[in-house]
């Protein structure tokens, strides 16, 4: 990542000094500082920073008004709030005003470095993720199937297609959020689902609801484990999974995706299982 030029906006000389030292230690370039709306406008125009750290309490104004003024000068300048205050209402207002990140004082050096790098990450981050994500998800599927059922799947060739496909009967969808957002789909037949659930539970399933609940948790584990591995490879990804959504029935379709997705058919002891995962860049997600 290129050298990031930063302006610090804060009404406390002590906070500016501490933050300047932290940013220098993390190899960011501090090109200016300001403690009022007028100074912020002047310094931003003069220094043309890539990013501004913004306190929320500024005499005669606030951090959000300063943020709006910065974006009038250049909408591409990222703003990261650095403030002692943080609650749901402030975070909501910050997002509305296109703040790129939020760090609470006292500032942790590693945290602010991650937030800044995440805010400044461009298309190269998505390209990095696209090169590695599917192998990680496939490995997570294999490992967790083995842990739960003591069996190992084999795979056909990987493919990339955004066409609408026929479901085998049950589709479990996991939403993924972070600097890049995406989805994971596990699709299988009712018969395969029943066999898998019974192998995991080591007994007959009581009903379809119990079977679907097991599948939802299994898919959630696959997605969660995969995202954790990816975050360890690069914490800027900041990936998190949403609760699973389960669709089942006759004539079910896997809809065409706007994402670039990769898929593979896994042959297991219980039947075919179709794995599909894709990501796109998400500018707005930072919490």
UniProtKB/TrEMBL annotation:
Domain Response regulatory: where?
Answer: 5-120
Q: Which InterPro entries match?
A: Bact_response_regulator, CheC-like_sf, CheX-like_dom, CheY-like_superfamily, Sig_transdc_resp-reg_receiver
* Keyword Phosphoprotein in record: yes
Alphabetical list of Pfam families matching this protein? CheX, Response_reg
Gene3D superfamilies given in the database record: 3.40.50.2300, CheC-like
The record's PANTHER family line, in alphabetical order, gives: RESPONSE REGULATORY DOMAIN-CONTAINING PROTEIN (PTHR44591:SF3), STRESS RESPONSE REGULATOR PROTEIN 1 (PTHR44591)
Query: What protein name is recorded for this chain?
Result: Stage 0 sporulation protein A homolog
Please give a single GO biological process term from the UniProt record: chemotaxis
Question: Hey, what's the signal peptide range on this chain?
Answer: none
Q: What does this protein do?
A: May play the central regulatory role in sporulation. It may be an element of the effector pathway responsible for the activation of sporulation genes in response to nutritional stress. Spo0A may act in concert with spo0H (a sigma factor) to control the expression of some genes that are critical to the sporulation process.
In terms of SUPFAM superfamilies, this protein maps to: CheC-like, CheY-like
